[in-house]
TrEMBL record, chain B:
Residue ranges the record marks as coiled coil: none
Residue spans crossing the bilayer: 45-69, 109-132, 144-162, 169-188, 200-220, 315-341, 353-374, 386-407, 413-443, 464-489
Domain DUF112 positions: 21-438
Pfam families, alphabetized: TctA (PF01970)
Swiss-Prot/TrEMBL keywords: Membrane, Transmembrane, Transmembrane helix
Keyword Transmembrane helix attributed: yes
Name this polypeptide is given: Tripartite tricarboxylate transporter permease
Alphabetical list of InterPro entries matching this protein: DUF112_TM
Entry keyword annotation includes Cytoplasm: no
Amino acid sequence: MRTSSRYRVTARMIATIGVVSLIAACSGNGGGGNADAGGDTYPGDNITFVVPFSAGGPTDTVTRMIAEPMAAKLGGKIVVQNVEGAGGTVGAGEVARAEPDGYTLLMHHIGMSTAPALYKDLGYQPLESFETVGLVTEVPMTVVARKDFAPATLKDLVTHVKANADKVTLANAGIGAASHLCGLLFQTAAGVKLQEVPYEGTGPALTDLVGGQVDFMCDQTTNTSGQISAGEVKAYAVTTPERVKSLPDLPTTAEAGLPGLEVSVWHGLYVPKGTPQDVVQKLSEALKVALADQRVMDQMAKLGTTPVPAESATPQAHRTKLEEQLGTWGKVIADAGVEAS
Amino acid sequence: MELLDNLALGFSTALLIQNVLYCFVGVLLGTAVGVLPGIGPTATVAMLLPITFNFEPVTALIMLAGIYYGAQYGGSTTAILINLPGESSAAVTALDGHEMARQGRAGPALASAAIGSFIAGSIATVALAVAAPPLARVALQFGPAEYFSLVLLGLIVSIALARGTALKALAMIFLGVLLGTVGQDIYTGTPRFVFGQRELYGGIDFVSVAVGMFGVAEILRNLENEQTRTAVVNKVKNLWPTREDRRRIVGPILRGTGLGAALGVLPGGGHVLASFTSYAVEKRISKRQREFGHGAIEGVAGPESANNAAAQTSFIPLLTLGLPAHPVMALMVGAFIVHGITPGPNVITDEPALFWGLIASMWIGNVLLVLLNLPLIGMWVRMLRIPYQVLFPMIILFASIGTYSLGFNAFDVYAIVLFGLLGYVLIKCGCEPAPLLLGFVLGPLLEENLRRALIISRGDATVFLTRPISAVLLAVALAALVVAVLPAIRRRREMVFTEED
């Protein structure tokens, strides 16, 4: 019944505020490390999902969406914890050092594959320090420009920026951000070096794009589709092999003549290296169930994305993707000469 | 009239029983997290966002918005009572608000903050309803060059925050700027002053600095000197502003509202300047400049009004353009998306009930807040009677929990210890934390926009003069500087920097 659910929600909300301090005080070391890690009894304790980015951001939202159905399948409780800092490397490092007992998981995005090239002394290695559990979702990106920017198509854009490389500005949301990576790949694919203008996050970058202060940028559909459909920015292409449902008229980069520019913000779930295989399997099964959940699909559709197909939500598919991406970004970042530390 | 039709639609939405209820829940939660040191609106909105998945979109947004502006109301309470600001705006309130509390005038300080916030919130909501889309268009004219000039102007006029000598104030501003540079440089990725600590890559959190420099240092000072402290507790005078007080706060409230409303519209973070600038303006034009820093009620009413007006108008870029001006606004973008509404310029036309309902709810929320907060004043003032040996460990406990919950990072908790000690040493040297916080907040903004403007102009520094808005702001900044240094007005300036003995 509608009313009773509302009351429950209110009670939950008040309870949430009440336990804010308790969560803050108790969940610091990430779940009960002393619980029995055997496959039969797992999970016997709360599971912690570490999100290495701020609460409320896209990665956090995706994590919270799948946490509930996964907890239901596993028959335990999942606590989402945000450990921010240094492009996600603080949170990832914490999970890499956690007990490999299946009670501490990491949700990370494309940044997992770019960190080794961007940061020296990372303190962990993506392939050696973690077991992959499965891919979760791939969020497409779009190439957008200020609405009065001259080029009309992606091909025109490439010609224009090549001819005016000393004038054009390319915005991004900071070193290592998805928009930055996509911008680097654009420069590689187009064979041009442009003046980048970094911002602290997507919001300010998009604000200056709408305000006409900078020329163009790449960003996730989540952030741009509203501005695109309102005509506040000019859109050239979407960077995935298929068009996106929310922007049916927007061609893919391959269709628009720049096939080298293929990038998506892929998300995956990790556990520390040495986690028992049966636990990894259980988690992967639960992930598959969560991704097939109608509610999760609906919510992801609202974010302009979809869950990955069931065959990608496996440890092996995830590992293959990670290996391939480490290779791609290691080269792109090294060629661009970018270094974060 | 179209506006009246729209407002009717808005109020018919906002006055639905569940919307009023969740508006109340939002402002109540906002007041609560505003009062608790360290736990800010950003963390609260982030935590409650998943719960709103089951709500109607408009109900969810009404509640989340209520948390945000409710926290602006509540934030002044701890700043005034125990010198513990949880946000940059409340740091300004603490300057004179806490002095008033020490003089037994916590009641009038809290009341003028609440009344000022109510008036400012109501007027700013009208501005939001009448002129949101055109204001947002104007705000988009502000690029990096304009922000640089604006922040520079703000920094120059805000030197009035200092009570001590100009030299010490400048030293504190520079120390603040230096602290603000800690972390990864956003342009090159180079870590600055992080000493190999990955936790410092994101910079030092404002809450840690404010809680340490103000709150913890204040506790140390109180523990050192038991006598001045007991004096605070015993002589609680009137709870309500006197007739004289009421006469004195009208001007500051109205000026603060105008200033805050204007700065809040700017999507690049104009809201952080609102309370600083309002304080500086009130101090400049007041006939009682000597009272500032020693419990001037104008120094509470003005900045609190400015802060609340800015909190309301900072919804303008979000609602009309889908562009967030603030971390809380970025979370609201998330809330829009989760509820299937694509934030952007189309929201007004596609979802009129949501747009106008949210605006109308802000007015209702402001009424609820003032009804909620005025009766609480008596209770807050009584809190000062709690024996200090009980009160101070609780303050430290809440401050530690609050700072830890910022990013589940023990580093932030160590930081309040460090800044508490630093703050104590500085107080002993006769230096004040307010200019330091000013430098800490504005320094990074200044650097970021200076460099961005120069990157975009390819190193051509004339961009600050050839862009009209920027040129005007710089001219005003120059004028402010000239006024401060001209020997002819030297005497006036000395009154601004009241010597402390």
